[in-house]
Amino acid sequence: MLDLTSASVSSVVESAPLPAMGTLPDQIRAGRAFFFTGRGRWSGNGTSAADATEHGSAWSSCGTCHPDGLTDNLTWIFAAGPRQSTSLDGSFSHGIPGTVKQRIFNWTAVIDELHDFETNARGVSGGKGALTTSATCGILAAETRTSITGSGLASPPVQEVQDTQAMNCTTDWNRVTDFVKVIRPPRARRYGDAASVSRGAALFGGAGGCTHCHGGAGWTISNRFYTPISLNNGAGGLPAQAFTAPVTFPLSQSSPNTTQIALQHPSADSFVPTTIPPLQLTCALRNVGTFGVPGSTATTDALEVRSTAFIFGGTMMSTRAQGRAGYNVPALYGLAVGAPYLHHGKAATLEELFTDPLWLPHTQAGNVNFLVGGSAATDRADLINFLLTIDALTTEIPVPAGYASGCACPGGGGSC
Ligand code: HEC
Ligand code: HEC
Q1: Residue 216, ligand 1, Cβ within 6 A
Q2: How would residue 55 be classed by pLDDT, with cut points 50, 70 and 90?
Q3: At CB < 8 A and 24+ separation, what contacts does 370-379 make?
Q4: Which terminus of the chain has a smaller tally of CB atoms within 10 A, N or C?
Q5: CA angle, 251 as apex, 235 and 305 as ends, to 5°?
Q6: Residue pair 241/408 in contact by the 8 Å Cβ criterion
Q7: Which residue has the CA at smallest separation from atom 31 of ligand 1?
Q8: Residue 330 — pLDDT band, cuts 50, 70, 90?
């Protein structure tokens, strides 16, 4: 307790005992600390005199852009393109235990494990990172960063490297994963017009056809159906496994790629006559016509840029963003606190998302006759009222038959 008169600590009162070392609550606590405090290896690299004593000045952490584990609601220009910060409440689903799943990460389905964000800890926060080796682990200056050429969907995956390398220093990324799993979506509206909400739910699962893409666990068909290991991510694995679009899907909505892991297909975007990196999980992508600003080539070309040009065949190719072939279907938790919407944040409100003709291909992706005619305004209001009630407790609505993701393991199995 602080004694304000003498400006001293008069007694120590613990609000609650810390969880026992090594238990899951303790691991979650550690992951939360790494995520938010950005101390030590998360922002310091031990090479300067200041770092040696300070162990990281914590000027940035994951929490900088993901306050409370959610989103700062800003659109950053990242290496893949303009990217609205994703709320991590939907990175894992929150439905019935046993059905909980991890989605593929990022707007263009380019990341499959939390460990891949090592590049963020090193590059954005200036930290040593948590994938290091040393004979004297714990002294940052004496630790060597492991090369992470296999981050994203490439091989060997980062967690596999962590688990198999000699003199590995920490498994902190496992703790961050434990924490992200328990980020709860904000509690949604409870006191709306109940009849309107249930009409909206019926439209979502029925006439709107929203569940073709936003059905199932975590309100998205996006699903990490495989364990990131060399066997799956390596050349003979998912990069060689055929991708066949579900027959019920209009071809225009499916990725033109023919294998499960691939670079964006050259046919998707005539702006650059080549593939666009990084590697994507093809079966998680759906094209709903949201690349740039539809109808305005100049605005699209100015908007859909990436922070660094990509190199192809030794030539600096372009700063064209990835995404023309479609996006990773987002989870729909926390919409009331997550505006603006879409990967580039171009829809300011849910009303705009479902009214502006620019985004009509998305609104009608599940049914070309949706939100037309005399009932459009009421249906739109009902749909939005329902969307605003989605949180961890809302009963998930399954994906209708025929609209499964099209994901398949090496050899054709459903999980690997
Ligand atoms: C500079 C802002 C910024 C910082 C710092 C940041 N993120 Fe992010 N994060 C983003 C943006 C923007 C996206 C969307 C990127 C994309 O889709 O290409 C994102 C996406 C993610 C996702 C994908 C979620 C999903 O379900 O698709 C995860 C997981 C994530 N970040 C974790 C982290 C972790 C862990 C750290 C700390 C090491 C971190 N982020 C630091 C801005 C940031
Ligand atoms: C064919 C697949 C598909 C269908 C059908 C579909 N969506 Fe989407 N939805 C997507 C994709 C992909 C995005 C992301 C697009 C982007 O960011 O550019 C998205 C984005 C959204 C967003 C914005 C989320 C955010 O965090 O920015 C909302 C809300 C949404 N959809 C609700 C719906 C509703 C309601 C319906 C039914 C009327 C529907 N969607 C139908 C694929 C689909």
Answers
A1: no
A2: low
A3: 370/203, 370/207, 370/208, 370/209, 379/199, 379/203, 379/207
A4: N
A5: 65
A6: yes
A7: 86
A8: very high
